[in-house]
Write a structure and sequence with these properties.
By secondary structure, this protein is mainly α. The chain has 4 helices and 2 strands; from the N terminus they run E-H-H-E-H-H.
C-alpha cells in the first residue's frame, strides 16, 4: 500500500496495515468472497475498504497475489474452495 500524501519526515512503506488486515490478508479475503475478480476489481474493492489515507495500486495488488501464489484464476478458485470447505 502506498501513502497518497506522506507527512514530513515519514517514508512510504508497502507494509502499512489497512485497518486490521494487511494488504495480503485483505486480498486473500476478497478472493475468498469472489475468486473470479480481476486485479483491477480487487484494487477497487480494496480501496473502498481501506481508509482514505492509503491507496492500493494495481501493482500492489499484483504483488500481493504473487506473494500468495494467487496470480492465476485457477489458484484463486482453489483458495476459494479450500476456505469454503473449512467453513463447513
Amino acid at each position: 500500500i502506498t501513502i497518497k500524501q506522506k507527512p514530513a519526515g515519514e517514508t512510504a512503506t508497502t507494509a502499512e496495515p489497512m485497518g486490521e488486515l494487511s494488504l495480503d490478508e485483505s486480498v486473500a479475503q476478497l478472493v475468498t468472497e469472489d475468486p473470479f475478480c480481476t486485479i483491477a476489481e480487487l484494487r477497487d474493492q480494496t480501496n473502498q475498504r481501506c481508509s482514505a489515507r492509503y491507496h492500493a495500486r494495481w501493482w500492489n495488488i499484483f504483488a500481493a497475489l504473487r506473494r500468495g501464489h494467487l496470480l492465476s484464476r485457477r489458484a484463486r478458485f482453489r483458495l476459494f474452495r479450500q476456505r469454503n470447505q473449512a467453513a463447513r
